[in-house]
Specification:
- With 294 residues, the chain is mainly beta.
- The protein folds into two domains: 46 residues, no CATH class; 201 residues, 6 Propeller (Neuraminidase).
- The chain is built from no helices and 25 strands.
- A four-stranded antiparallel β-sheet has the order 3-4-5-6, with no helix packed on it. Strands 7-8-9-10 form a four-stranded antiparallel β-sheet, with no helix packed on it.
- A hairpin with a 2-residue loop joins strand 15 and strand 16.
Length: 294
């Protein structure tokens, strides 16, 4: 069966819009038409707020919180709760994300500590954040977990990055220091948006290069962020707001960097319509579209 691909050679910039046709494909997809059903699994082992949560392997983890706690509760895929080794330092107002085989809990009130839990819930303590801070935000992109912003007694612009071996680096700081911001990821970008007195959005790609897309429509803090499909969403916040800002890479001027020889294979769909902005280095060369059997 024919497949379609784009070969990147040389360099230059171009915008490709094309439609590729292959022989008809018959497929069936099972779709659930039901609405989500709520259940109430076993409660946390200790009641608390200002905690952090993330997932790794077969477990969802809830760690720390206030009243100042080091407790970690883990829920497996059947919602059975367990209590793995506690955080090395009790804290709250911190952030969590996952990268590779690790769930990371970083920062918190008066702390620079990072605790890592692997897929068997064994805890380790990698290098601490470069600056202890709280009210920071975390997300992951490519091979990096990022902890950005926060409060140290003043607004912080620091970003700490941990790779899949838990080695820490410090990429370019946020363009504006701030705390009580929100973070999420979409496509090849990690986004840090809003924060105290700020509407700024900073974006980091998979090489940790920072850019600054269009700001939030309304500056606000204590907002929340998540992603769905092609969109990163930032919602709510203080001053009390119902605003939701949505970002998608092509809509905010992101460009995807690709080395010479990159091949895009669009599979065997009946039709494939693709529009993508390309930056190819070095700055001379060409982009070729080729269709044929692979």
């Amino acid at each position: 069966m024919a497949r379609s691909k784009v070969n990147i050679g040389g360099g230059g910039g171009a915008e490709l819009t094309f439609t590729a046709y292959t022989p008809a494909v018959t497929s069936s997809v099972a779709i659930s038409s039901g609405t989500p059903t709520r259940s109430t699994p076993t409660a946390l082992s200790v009641a608390r707020y200002s905690l952090a949560a993330t997932s790794i392997g077969d477990y969802a983890l809830f760690g720390g919180g206030n009243p100042t706690s080091a407790t970690v509760d883990a829920y497996n895929t059947t919602l059975t709760r367990s209590t793995p080794t506690a955080l090395s330092v009790a804290r709250y107002n911190f952030a969590a994300t996952s990268i590779g085989d690790y769930a990371l809990f970083g920062g918190g009130y008066t702390s620079a500590t990072v605790d890592a839990y692997n897929t068997t819930l064994t805890r380790s303590t990698p290098t601490a954040l470069s600056v202890g801070r709280y009210s920071l935000a975390a997300t992951s992109i490519g091979d990096y977990a990022l902890f950005g912003g926060g409060y140290t007694g003043a607004s912080s612009a620091t970003v700490d990055a941990y790779n899949t071996t838990l080695t820490r680096s410090t990429p370019t700081a946020l363009s504006v220091g701030r705390y009580d911001l929100a973070a999420t990821s979409i496509g090849d970008y990690a986004l840090f948006g809003g924060g105290y007195t700020s509407a700024t959005v900073d974006a980091y790609n998979t090489t940790l290069t920072r850019s600054t897309p269009t700001a939030l429509s309304v500056g606000r803090y204590d907002l929340a962020a998540t992603s769905i499909g092609d969109y990163a969403l930032f919602g709510g916040g203080i001053p009390t707001s119902a605003t939701v800002d949505a970002y998608r890479p092509e809509a905010i001027g992101f460009y995807q960097e690709m080395p010479i020889g990159t091949v895009f294979d669009f599979g065997t769909e009946i039709t494939a319509t693709v529009k993508q902005n390309f930056i190819v280095t070095p700055a001379t060369g060409y982009i070729k579209y080729k269709k044929g059997d692979l």
